[in-house]
Amino acid sequence: MLQRLMFLLLGLLLWGTSGVASALEPRLWVVQSDTSLAYQQATEGLLQALAREGVDAAEVAVLSVPAFQQRSQNRRPSALGAASASQRVVTLGAAAAEAVLAAKGDYAVLSVLVPRQSFERMLRVLGKSVSTHLSALYIDQPLVRQFALLRLVWPQANRLGVLLGPDSASRLLMLRRLATPRQWQVNDARVVDAQDLFSALSQVLDGSDVLLALADPLVFNRSSIQNILLASYRARVPMLAFSPAYVRAGAVLALYTAPLQAGQQAGRLAAQALRTERWPEQTQEPDDFVIEVNPSVARSLGLSLDPEALRQQLRTLERLP
Amino acid sequence: MNSSPSARRSVGADVSLALLALALTGSLSPSRAAGVLSEQDYLIDMPVVLSVSRLAQRLDETPGAVTILDRDMLRRSGARDVADALRLVPGFQTSTSFESIAPLASYHGKFDDYSNRLELMIDGRSAYSTYFIGSVGPGLQTMALEDIERIEVLRGSNSAAYGARAILGVINIVTRHSADTLGAQGAVTVGENGVRDAQARLGWESAASTYRLTVDRRADEGLTGAFGANRIERVNFRADTALQAGSELQWRAGYLSIDAGKGRINEVENPARPTQFASAYLQVDYRLALGLDSDLALRFSHGQETYQEDYLYALTNLPLPLGSLYGPQDFYTVNSGGSARNDVLTVQHSIRANPTTRLVWGGEYRNEQVQSIALFNTDRALGTEFVRLFGNLEWRLANDWLLNAGALAEHSSRNGNTLSPRLMLNWHVTPSHTVRAGVSKAFRPPSTFESSADLRYIWTGNHPFNWPQVLSSGTVQAETVVASELGYLGDFKAWHAALDVRLFHERINGFIRRTQNTPVDYYNSEDFSIQGVEYQLKWQPWTDGQWVFSQAHTDIGSTLAGVGTAYAAPKVATTLMFTQAFPGGVDLSLIHQNQSEMTLQGYGADNRFAMARTDLRLAKALRWGSRRGEVALVVQNLGDPYRDFDKAFYFGRRAFVTLRLQD
Predict the structure, then answer these.
(1) Same domain, yes or no, for A43 and A178?
(2) Chain A window 86-145: which residues touch B at a Cβ cutoff of 8 Å?
(3) Residue B213 CB neighbours (<10 A)
(4) In this complex, is the C-beta atom of B397 within 8 Å of any C-beta atom belonging to chain A?
(5) Which residue has the higher pLDDT, B409 or B7?
(6) A118 in a structural domain
(7) Which of residues 237-256 of A touch B (CB under 8 A)?
(8) ipTM, 2 decimals?
(9) d(C-alpha A2, C-alpha A9), whole Å
(10) Is residue A5 part of a domain?
(11) Residue A259: its chain B contacts at CB < 8 A?
(12) Quick one: average pLDDT of B336-361?
């Protein structure tokens, strides 16, 4: 009984806001997969960038996935009246992107904080393609940038080890194509089952100077990381990781885009889209990044690394400010 | 319990529906299904793996001189056991004789039949022999060479970090991680002098654990002139398990048996007889990362040893007129057998307080029990308990200056309290040139035998006798060493060369010695210094070729007349090793070793002998498919036979072939 009353009240409230909002309908919806810190930071970066571009905070609605679904259902009748105007949405995380893409209604979506592989899979499953109506800003680093960093840190090395799983295997072709002109030789091993990890690891570490970690939950996860880091440390093969958590765990180096940075880039893209009514026609790669070094591991491996200097060198190479 | 078929069916239906739903949601919403890539892979937290204590110190930051014999070096040395490989370490004296149970290795002096002024660690477990006066000999045979990742030799006193017995140095054997030895591997060695070695290893894995089982034997006819063949048989097991949240569990267990001979045929006082030694160990290690900068390690180990050696002595051989009292049927059994065990519990906490300080501290309880009617004239086990507290602070005073300050406080139920402090300063003059200076104090408490021996010949038949042979008065105190050193480590990248120099002065006070009269007692004899310089130059003038030149100048300042202590180490010892890898997987090593004269086991001031030995190894790598292997020919001592252990024992030329296969 109480539940039904609450529901009624909530409905009234939503109806009320949508009625009032018809004049001030937010031009941009930001849908978060989760309320944890990373998504909050991304949202914060996004709002900062929008404010800098002169977009008023009142024009942005920040929603959780359930709130989005609720609002999406309420929107349908009013959307009939204004069929031409599609709602512009930034989704943070894969869950939010899936929810928005699965919802009925006309949404122009920029998917932020998604790995390339998961966005591409989502497109395949839903039978959609990238357009000015549906684009993405990836969380993963461009391979070119990773290669540039590897060369800066290890000018003499030439054997690059990679452990590939079902999610990262498709990157091998691109990896090989980029490696050869950069004097790298890719030494890869496939992990098909968690049981193969040790054999794949010893195969890769045996003939590599550096290990490049590419996100794949079958290969890199909380239970495998210990064995990977210990084995690579024993073999004196340093690892370039893709998130700060791995540096904390014991990887010597990580190259990643912080959620705040991703949010800021998304904010700039959103401000532009609000002006042009278009999302970028190609998916975007993160233009800002952080380099993090584990100083104790670096010292123990005899490496002397200055993360800020490396970041500046990389930015100069990429002609970024 | 009996559930109805319908109920069972409905449960099954629910499960399959749930699976179907899971499969559907899995395909539609990849991020929610377990094990599918999403941004979470970039955002989730990870347990700390390479915590403080796991990180190795760089060679130029260790508080002392360190020589590392890695897997490659061990293989190329052609050595068949650890003791023989240690001759490549500057300042070491080694033997291949089994006269003292197992081949010995000592640093800065082969003072007697046991080498007990070194600490031997195998994966953190102290492996000196409780039964044999703390000798490292039997322990050096614990592992098959194939299972060893590297041997780290800390040249110089290091009791603050490794406990009593590390008074002249530490041999630290690090075995290979079981994750690095998966699959099957085997080796067979056949050659002259009855060399017949065989080894087989199997490594396997489960989701979070890896395992290794190695079985091997090492056999030969021993030194020319020595009695009996030597046969070592061993089994070693290791399991490594990665537990949740950065913790780790390791199990190790092993068994070793050494069948050898000692004495000489036709010698009445020291007749030829077989000896049988066996030991077993169990070690459990648990390591837990408490956070980014702190971790805890717990270790329990148990070790046990048994020894059998006896021979019959005809009492008619006693000097006259005593000998005439006994008839031809009166045989006395001379026995040296017995057993020993030790149990050790260690807790160690490592903390990185801030980027410039690292602290390791902890405690250890060790219980040793020795039982031998022959040696102690009692069937009661003689126990010694040790309680130790240790700590080491590594403080980076400035970017180029590193200070290591440590101490070990030990309470022994037999010898009271001692404190071993150490201070070492490392200065990186440039990133590739380091100067090191330091001083340390260490104690070696007398072993159970040295402090409590009661070895006597007791005859209860006709004309009974009770003759004490070794009777420890128990007055012997711990001997102390104050060691000071100046070291240099240089990396000459442009010349592809590296130089390691150690200038040392080791002051020994109350050197423990046997008295010359019968019954023998142990006492604190003279004070003397061991001083000198040793250095090692590594040079890689061309691709795949390396020269390693080592030289040790050692001066033992013992002045006690009639003993050979002053010549327990050669004044000058030189080793030159050349290795070259050729195309086609052909590998050549040549090792030449030259020592000025020394007493063989520290005895007999007038019996001094020099030695020279040249070894050759030629190997060819084999490969077919994923399988790898190697066939190697080793010729040890290309030159004349040299004396080893006893002036009547010779090490002659030995050629053997090894075939090694790995899947």
Answers:
(1) no
(2) 93-95, 98, 102, 113-115, 117-118, 121-122, 125, 139-140
(3) 17
(4) no
(5) B409
(6) yes
(7) 242-243, 245-246, 248-250, 256
(8) 0.88
(9) 10
(10) no
(11) 43
(12) 94
Q: Is A209 on the interface with B (CB under 8 A)?
A: no
DSSP E strand boundaries for chain A = 28-32, 60-64, 87-92, 107-114, 134-138, 159-164, 185-190, 210-212, 239-241, 253-256, 290-293
By CB atoms closer than 10 A (0-12, 13-18, 19+), residue B497 is middle
Give residues 207 to 236 of B whose Cβ lies within 8 Å of A: 207-208, 210
Residue B16, pLDDT > 50, answer no
Q: What is the pLDDT of residues B138-154, one digit of tens each?
A: 999 999 999 999 999 99
- Domain of residue A294, residue span: 143-256+289-317
The CATH number assigned to the domain holding A131 equals: 3.40.50.2300
Q: Which of A135, A157, A124 is nearest to A273 (CA)?
A: A135
Interface touch A250/B51, C-beta < 8 Å: yes
The Cα B126–Cα A213 span in angstroms is 38
Residues A133 and A179 in one domain: no
Report residue B395's pLDDT band, with 50, 70 and 90 as the boundaries: very high
Q: Which two three-digit tokens encode residue B404?
A: 């290591």
Whether A43 contacts chain B with CB within 8 A: no
A9 is a domain residue: no
Same domain, A181 and A252: yes
Q: Do B31 and A93 touch (CB under 8 A)?
A: yes
Structure confidence at residue A193 as a pLDDT band (50, 70, 90):
confident
The pTM assigned to this predicted structure is 0.85
B292 contacts A300? CB cut-off 8 A: no
What is the number of domains present in chain A?
2
What is the percent of chain B where pLDDT is above 70?
A: 95
- Give the Cα separation of A274 and A86 in Å (integer): 11
Same domain, A234 and A121: no
Q: Which residue of B has its CA nearest to A199?
A: B182
Q: State the DSSP code for B82.
A: H
> What are the extents of the domains in chain B?
52-662
Per-residue model confidence (pLDDT) at position B54: 79
Q: Which residues of chain A have a CB within 8 Å of the CB of B242? A: 223, 226-227, 230
pLDDT confidence of residue B291 = 81
Predicted pLDDT of residue B86? 97
CATH architecture of B52-662: Beta Barrel (2.40)
Per residue in B485-506, pLDDT tens? 999 999 998 999 999 999 999 9
